[in-house]
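Fill in residues.
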């Protein structure tokens, strides 16, 4: 897919495997596992890894120090609650140890601060605590797809006017659909000058579709995790989003030939296995059994096996369905 002048469109993939892994039941990464995963992400072409969770800032900064000591070439980022009690200390800490960070302001009226005016005021207060220059600070809005879009436009505009250099839209409960996401992202990108990122959850199985829709709506970056790891039903899958975009002509920075190895590493480290039916990296993706498919298997594949370094498997038994 080109941008109208013959050049392919480019979008960034921000990996959140370590940060979202903290919220996945039963998952704990050791320091050495975190370093190995991040090192492999960097080798696969991923340029940014979000490793600091807003409720566990100190833990994430420890990983950031280990990555820096080992010379892992990837930008580190993290999150701080704009309304958090320790926001002054946490902002200073992440600004010293990370390449960039985002201030989170949940937009749900059921999360503090409750009132829209208070949310805007609190976010601007937090932005004022950041030591200049502000080039490395963005803002993120959980529940952005669950509130009146006009409020999202207003608070995003206020944040960018105050110095935020990136805005991330969270489909926090995974309830949005691709049509709504494309429209919302397009509206926001017309409203503000800063890059817009999208963060999708998979509660209804739409995280990958919503991420692709966000790209079509003008998003400059997408949040992903290896194997779709994350709390509840997980997040948008790195391998699905990357290959889905590459197959459509986008530049994503990621090397698709590294995705299977990365998937296996995270599955082993997390203890969360990958389904044999999983898109892109599942064992059965290129397995053909129907007699009607065997003469022309490529006609039944969304992309060529060689793209990810896989092999086609033909089973000459069974009956057509």
């Amino acid at each position: 897919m080109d941008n109208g002048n013959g050049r392919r469109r480019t979008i960034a993939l921000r990996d959140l495997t370590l940060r979202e892994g903290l919220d996945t039941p039963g998952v704990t990464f050791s320091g050495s596992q975190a370093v190995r995963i991040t090192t492999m992400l960097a080798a696969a072409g991923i340029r940014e890894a979000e490793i600091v969770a807003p409720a566990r800032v100190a833990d994430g900064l420890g990983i950031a120090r280990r990555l820096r000591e080992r010379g892992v070439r990837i930008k580190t980022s993290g999150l701080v609650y704009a309304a958090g009690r320790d926001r002054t200390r946490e902002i200073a800490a992440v600004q010293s140890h990370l390449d960039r960070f985002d201030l989170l302001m949940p937009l749900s009226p059921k999360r503090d601060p409750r009132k829209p005016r208070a949310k805007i005021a609190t976010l601007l207060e937090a932005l004022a605590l950041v030591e200049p220059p502000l080039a490395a600070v963005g803002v993120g809005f959980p529940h952005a797809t669950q509130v009146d879009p006009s409020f999202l436009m207003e608070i995003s505009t206020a944040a960018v006017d105050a110095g935020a250099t990136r805005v991330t839209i969270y489909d926090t409960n995974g309830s949005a659909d691709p049509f709504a996401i494309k429209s919302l992202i397009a509206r926001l990108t017309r409203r503000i000058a800063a890059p817009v990122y999208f963060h999708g959850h998979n509660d209804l199985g739409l995280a990958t579709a919503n991420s692709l829709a966000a790209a079509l709506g003008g998003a400059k970056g997408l949040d992903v995790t290896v194997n779709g790891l994350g709390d509840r039903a997980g997040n948008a899958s790195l391998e699905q989003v990357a290959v889905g975009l590459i197959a459509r002509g986008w530049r994503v920075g990621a090397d698709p030939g590294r995705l299977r190895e990365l998937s296996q590493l995270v599955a082993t480290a997390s203890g969360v296995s990958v389904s044999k039916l999983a898109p892109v990296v599942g064992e059965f993706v290129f397995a053909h059994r129907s007699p009607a498919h065997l003469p022309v298997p490529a006609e039944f594949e969304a992309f060529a096996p060689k793209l990810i370094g896989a092999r086609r498997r033909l089973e000459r038994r069974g009956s057509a369905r």
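The beta strands are 12-15, 48-52, 75-81, 100-104, 137-141, 167-171, 196-200, 221-224, 287-288, 313-314.
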